[in-house]
Design brief:
By secondary structure, this protein is an alpha+beta fold. The protein has two domains: about 5-145, Jelly Rolls (Sandwich); about 145-205, Winged helix-like DNA-binding domain superfamily/Winged helix DNA-binding domain (Arc Repressor Mutant, subunit A), CATH 1.10.10. It has helices at about 5-10, 15-25, 80-85, 110-115, 120-145, 150-165, 170-175, 180-195; strands at about 25-30, 35-40, 45-50, 55-60, 65-70, 95, 100-105, 165, 200, 205. A four-stranded antiparallel beta sheet has the order 2-6-4-5. It has a three-stranded antiparallel beta sheet with strand order 1-7-3. A three-stranded antiparallel beta sheet has the order 8-10-9. A hairpin with a 2-residue loop joins strand 9 and strand 10 (about 205). The longest helix is centred in the middle third of the chain and has 27 residues, at about 120-145. It is elongated. It starts with a helix and ends with a strand.
């Protein structure tokens, strides 16, 4: 159960009345790691604030191949659900719980109301859109202008920032996120290990580069 103190710590600077309404109208949702939280074509009836855990957003083609977009972490909101909920649209992306996730879901009916009633909610929504747009630009930049070893280094450093020096990801999961093959990722990670950057273990790796 999330209390108002935790909500204030994760989402500082909101108006007093908004915290009260978030606690009154929001619903706590517990999602186990690996569960799909949002599917392509799914109607959006609420937005969510992440309280604990990490959510992965990605695209999926007709053959089941995934393309990583960005992650949503504690203290952040799902911009996709905000946009779709606001305009009564269906999702065009997939969302999966990368770890066990605790989220506060907010029914659609309060989006318009709070945008008009609370300036801090209006600013928070704009900030969320901007942050996710910047994340998307970073992803596009990695794909368009960098080779795979540079993309892998960037990706690994981001995972270390999120999960600490030991990251539980298989080579296949990394390859999927980078739209590459397991063989290519394994070869590049072995090169990184040889250079003293990481230590590879079964289904995980440890970052040791200073």
């Amino acid at each position: 159960m999330t209390d108002e103190k935790t909500l204030r710590q994760l989402f500082p600077g909101l108006e007093e009345g908004l915290y009260e309404e978030l606690m009154e109208h929001g619903n706590i949702k517990q999602v186990p790691a690996g569960e799909t939280m949002l599917a392509i074509g799914q109607p959006i009836r609420s937005t969510l604030l992440v309280l604990d855990g990490v959510i992965k957003l990605y695209q999926e083609d007709g053959e089941g191949s995934e393309f990583f977009i960005y992650d949503i972490q504690p203290g952040q909101a799902c911009a996709v659900s905000m946009v779709c909920a606001f305009q009564h649209e269906k999702s065009q992306v997939m969302a999966k719980a990368l770890t066990d996730v605790t989220a506060l879901t907010i029914p659609l009916e309060y989006m318009d109301k709070w945008l008009a009633k609370y300036k801090t909610w209006h600013y928070f929504v704009i900030k969320t859109y901007r942050a996710r747009y910047e994340e998307l630009l970073k992803t596009i930049n990695e794909i368009a202008f960098k080779n795979m070893d540079e993309r892998l280094e960037f990706y690994i450093k981001n995972q270390v920032k999120k999960f600490g020096n030991t990251v539980k990801l298989t080579h296949q999961e990394i390859a999927t996120d980078l739209n590459s093959s397991r063989e290519v990722i394994s070869r590049l990670m072995k090169k990184m290990e040889k250079n003293g950057w990481i230590i590879i273990s079964r289904n995980s790796f440890e970052w040791i580069k200073e």
